[in-house]
Specification:
16 strands, eight-stranded mixed sheet, homodimer, elongated, alpha/beta
Chain lengths: ~450, ~450
């Protein structure tokens, strides 16, 4: 029969003297009860279904975003928390408009429609749309080499594909995002009239994947759309056979006046140190073409569910734990900025902040950003508690777009890391639906986040 | 700038003196090239689509199984391997028959059809089917407590659900499999006329999940079907309102005479020690109601793809590497037994054997079964190479049903471990289709298997 001591070692997986005392066994049991509760509950999953199906397309400034604010506010109001409030924030109000469409016109192959979608922030083409010849490039260097002579009055087609052979899909994404974010501004420098950008996804599909783009001061603002990967492959193919083909598209985006919106915040007041704040959150807005299930309704519902689990298991944290639904991550990050501004203005004392905004796929671990090396090592060593749940990839470096502005007053930023294999199949597209959520994957993540919050608060790092 | 030495340490992740020499950097590069090749290739994925769509329901003895043998044989024949052959094996030939159906008949609630499926090995009810009262239990203890008086001439309904709150779905499965494998024999001891068993899956769905069952010598053989989890919940609910309801089902299974089938084997001959054999494989058969995408067409195609990768990258293993498509894992494991028998008869020298039969979901790592503790520790320490690919869960204990019979002549058995969150949504059901396969998840696994085979062969453990 195993001794008590060897059971602890077994549970911890790795012998780490810091944790070898009677308390740790208690922590193991608390974590076990958190996992049991999270996996046994369908509350967050069902709430996510409601959010996806009833506030679809909740981009900042939209009526759907306002509905999402109301829904999550009421959700937390019913949870017996210590306080729930709305934090006002003015947000941008970009609207896609109707009737986006595109087609390829070739005197050799004929005419074919292709799926496109305006990039977030794009201007519109006007009623008549744009028809022009098209020049395909894969980099800004190619653009420069072609020069004004070849680019002027043309549509530039950025067709650099995400590299499926990289071990990280996020790395593949970051290596191709330049064409989406800065393609229009660069192309306009050479006189292009518009840009069409290949969707940032690894799979061949008919879904265009949108995302934010930026114009540059003093450079003409030209319309920018993404095209589905299947559409991009077809266009690439037709261009080989007919380099003189014409591309037509129209879009009708407009930037409306800013509107008032809100971060939605709920908290459990700390038992010992109520003035020290732990923030966990996700962003409530999504792109206007999407249910925003993985990006990031899932992260929001996980954050709220951590508070539910604490309440149901009578876990009374020493510090105040807040679930924050940030508004406007996708467009201008006003919610995250506002939250940090208010925290600074009120001289709030922030202990750590954690964001879940990489999908609610099967968990891998957490990434930590902090300056203090010893503290970092202590945090990384907590991964022994997560080995039984295969969520023990703890690494240096991690945050979230919404908690990043907090970095000056919050010493520890943490990013939740789920598996990345499938994320970009959904990201910023109409394919990011509730049906792509697996209850178990989501709740294994919720349990991991709740357990980490519990442990860091408990150990007083 | 980082020194060469620190780059090696960085790549290895953990400082392990065993691996700190110039060669290791080379190994890192080989592994990187394996991942690049695997992720960049759609060959195995496309072959799996063919297998799923054209040999669906390939249970041992079926024409579809014969087609799967022919398909994989031709596949490997076209691959420029050193040899490809069929290993004859006589297999059982159980056939479900047509027109399986079931319904609940309640004088209070009415009549409703529910989805059922015979368990593998079940006898049939005969033309008229069986109609009887039904007794619900969750354990053999309950069965015993009820006794002959309450069970005789009844249908026993085993309704123990898989526990979704356990951290491992395989553990949840193993805790409920008794009712499927032995339920009929136990119920028959008390005079039951048939059994209906709750499907072994965590989700609520309309798919019945079949699987093997066993009769006992000297105990009457009574028909056994599984019911979908939605059906089981409905039956449970109706029984509460009308304990006297009648259950009707008919099935028409028959055990036909054994037929000749084959394991399909392809090999690359070893460069230095051709007489030492490394076996990697999966099972070619599937349940007759299923495309067998995750179970286990995926494992088969991964194994063949390892040989393709070795060939394309000019990796010449020291030892002979065999990809084996085992026949008849689901019914009587004849293929695995035959392979081990032939290996023993020919005095083959087996170095290690690895099986992929837990789905081709996102990779976690490998499990190792071997007696030599030092050798085990060396194998476990190889996980440093897999950290960049998040496939570094290396643990003691692992095998596969088909390689298990080899254990007497093969010192190392290895089981591939993918993520288990979604596996039982598909397992043994018509829901296990090619559409549930994600190319990247499958090929991250293929790369991990190829890399492990390469490393173990290279290091001469």
């Amino acid at each position: 029969m195993k001794s008590f001591f060897s059971i602890i070692i077994f549970l911890l997986g790795i012998v780490n003297p810091v944790f070898l005392n009677g308390q740790d066994f208690k922590q193991e049991l608390v974590i076990k009860s958190i996992y049991k509760n999270a996996l046994g509950s369908r509350k967050a999953y069902n709430d996510l279904r409601y959010l996806c199906k009833n506030t679809k397309g909740r981009i900042s400034g939209s009526p759907q975003a306002a509905e999402a604010v109301e829904f999550t506010y009421q959700l937390m109001k019913q949870m017996n928390l210590d306080s729930v409030w709305l934090q006002p924030v003015m947000v941008k109000n970009w609207k896609r408009g109707k009737n986006e469409k595109a087609s390829i016109h070739s005197s050799i192959m004929g005419i074919i429609e292709v799926p496109v979608l305006s990039l977030g922030g794009s201007v519109g083409t006007g009623e008549k749309g744009i028809t022009a010849g098209i020049v395909e490039v894969k980099s800004f260097e190619e653009l420069e080499a072609l020069g004004k002579k070849k680019i002027k009055n043309k549509i530039v087609f950025f067709n650099k594909a995400m590299d499926p052979t990289l071990s990280s899909t996020f790395k593949a994404y970051s290596k191709t995002a330049f064409q989406r974010t800065r393609g229009a501004a660069e192309a306009a420098k050479y006189g292009a009239v518009a840009v069409v950008v290949r969707s940032l996804t690894i799979v061949n599909s008919d879904f265009p994947h949108t995302g934010i783009m930026f114009y540059e001061e003093g450079i003409p603002e030209i319309p920018a759309v993404v095209i589905s990967t299947n559409g991009a492959n077809l266009l690439n193919n037709w261009l080989k056979k007919d380099p003189g083909l014409q591309f037509y598209f129209e879009n009708h985006c407009e930037l409306w006046p800013e509107v008032l919106s809100y971060n939605v915040i709920g908290e459990i007041r700390g038992r010992e140190r109520p003035d020290e704040i732990i923030t966990i959150g996700g962003h409530l807005d999504s792109w206007d073409n999407s249910e925003g299930a993985h990006d990031d309704g899932g992260g929001c519902m996980q954050s709220i569910d951590v508070l539910r689990i604490f309440n149901e298991l009578d876990i009374e944290p020493k510090r105040t734990v807040r679930a924050v639904m940030f508004m406007d991550e996708e467009y201008a990050q006003r919610g995250g900025q506002k939250y940090a501004e208010e925290a600074a203005r009120k001289n709030e004392k922030h202990y750590f902040a954690l964001e879940s905004d990489a999908g609610v796929l099967t968990p891998r671990g957490f990434g930590f950003s902090l300056a203090d090396e010893k503290r970092l090592q202590n945090l990384l060593s907590l991964n022994v508690y997560f080995k039984p749940y295969k969520t023990n990839l703890f690494k240096e470096g991690g945050w979230g777009v919404d908690i990043y502005p907090l970095r000056h007053i919050c010493p520890i930023l943490i990013g939740y890391i789920p598996d990345d294999s499938r994320y970009f199949n959904y990201h910023h597209s109409a394919n990011d639906t509730f049906e792509k959520i697996n209850h178990r994957e989501m709740q294994m993540g919720t349990a991991a986040i709740a357990s980490l919050v519990y442990l860091i608060d408990y150990f007083d790092f």
